[in-house]
Specification:
- One of its GO terms (cellular component) is cytoplasm.
- GO terms for molecular function: phosphatase activity.
- 33% of the residues lie in helices and 21% in strands.
């Protein structure tokens, strides 16, 4: 039986929540990817760091990565800008020094005031940005500057919890000016397409933890997608996801890449069955569970087996095929089902 990894020719990998959380490595990520032995490109919506800086961090965690193996949303934003902003134009960069350097290398003239009439505001996350800088960017946008952002992630995962993301900063400027930004990062497809081109992949697998960026972006790029349950999106988020946010495959962590492909697909798994108890009220019952299946001995893997079983029922229902589904409750019948659901992040 084919494994997940053997079914694809490259892994296009998110970072925060997938490879690491804050500065800490996600358990089993390196081990699973090492065994999978797929060509890797790391795609990040974080525009605050240069590719080499990201590569250095990954190498510190045991990976063997070069700057060319990393694609940031700042790089994608500069490529997008090239289509609408002439080189030599004044631009205001509300972002990290690495973003500013990319803009300089692209031939733009950096200014720090709206009074310099920038043709565009480039915004990427910078943890040191100030209210004054945000206000200057808003002034420039309100005066007609094009508003380009590296990504629209509202949160930034850290070991302490969720921090303010680039999308939240963009929302503040948009609220102030009434101007919606153009976004270069996930869930837009170009980053995925360009990453696949870098390694010559014809059948890549987009891997991440977040449905509305990693999975939606891979889906938009017409690629198969693989969600790991180690980051932002929860088990209940998956069940309720609209079709464009639904992953092709799901695993508890990266070691699932080296398991049977069918064990990662939405379908009855590990002896579980699911049914609607009250479709109108959004109540689903999970039952069964094969005590001989080794996944049930691992709470995270049992939780994913239950998730795949329930997702198959919900997504293939009449309502589920049309869009997002309101699931009020997933109820357990039997001890194995109860144990699996207890491990769900809701």
């Amino acid at each position: 039986m084919a494994s997940v990894a053997s079914s694809y020719d490259a892994a296009l990998l998110d970072l925060d929540g997938t490879i690491y959380e804050g500065g800490a490595a996600i358990p089993n990520a390196l081990e699973g990817l090492t065994e999978a032995a797929l060509p890797m490109v790391f795609i990040t919506n974080n525009a605050s760091r240069a590719p080499q800086t990201v590569a250095d961090q990954l190498n510190g965690l045991g990976y063997d990565v070069h700057a060319d193996d990393v694609m940031t949303s700042a790089q994608a934003a500069i490529e997008m800008a090239a289509e609408i902003i002439e080189p030599g134009s004044n631009v205001f960069v509300l972002g990290a020094e690495s973003f500013k350097q990319l803009a300089r290398e692209a031939g733009y003239n950096l200014v720090d005031s709206a009074d310099d009439n920038p043709a565009a505001v480039f915004q990427g996350l910078n943890r040191e940005m100030t209210w004054k800088q945000m206000s200057e960017a808003a002034l420039a946008v309100s005066r007609g500057a094009r508003f380009l952002v590296s990504n629209l992630d509202t949160t930034l995962p850290s070991e302490r919890g969720f921090l303010v993301g680039n999308g939240s900063v963009a929302a503040a400027i948009s609220t102030t000016t009434g101007v919606a930004p153009l976004s270069a990062g996930k869930p837009k497809p170009p980053m995925f397409i360009k990453a696949a081109e870098r390694v010559g992949a014809k059948n890549p697998l987009a891997i991440g933890d977040r449905l509305d960026t990693d999975i939606a972006g891979g889906n938009a790029a017409k690629m198969d997608t693989f969600m790991v349950g180690t980051g932002v999106s929860t088990h209940m988020d998956v069940i309720a996801a609209p079709p464009e946010h639904r992953p092709t495959l799901i695993g508890a962590d990266m070691t699932a890449l080296n398991r049977e492909l069918d064990q990662a697909r939405p379908a009855p798994q590990a002896g579980f069955t699911a049914r609607y108890d009250d479709a109108e009220a959004g109540v689903i019952v999970l039952s069964g569970g094969d005590s001989e299946d080794p996944r049930l001995a691992n709470p995270a893997e049992a939780a994913v087996a239950a998730l795949l079983t329930v997702a198959d029922v919900v997504w293939n229902s009449e309502v589920g095929r049309a869009g997002a589904v309101e699931v009020a409750q997933v109820r357990a019948e039997g001890p194995a089902a109860a144990a699996a659901l207890a491990a769900w992040r809701k």
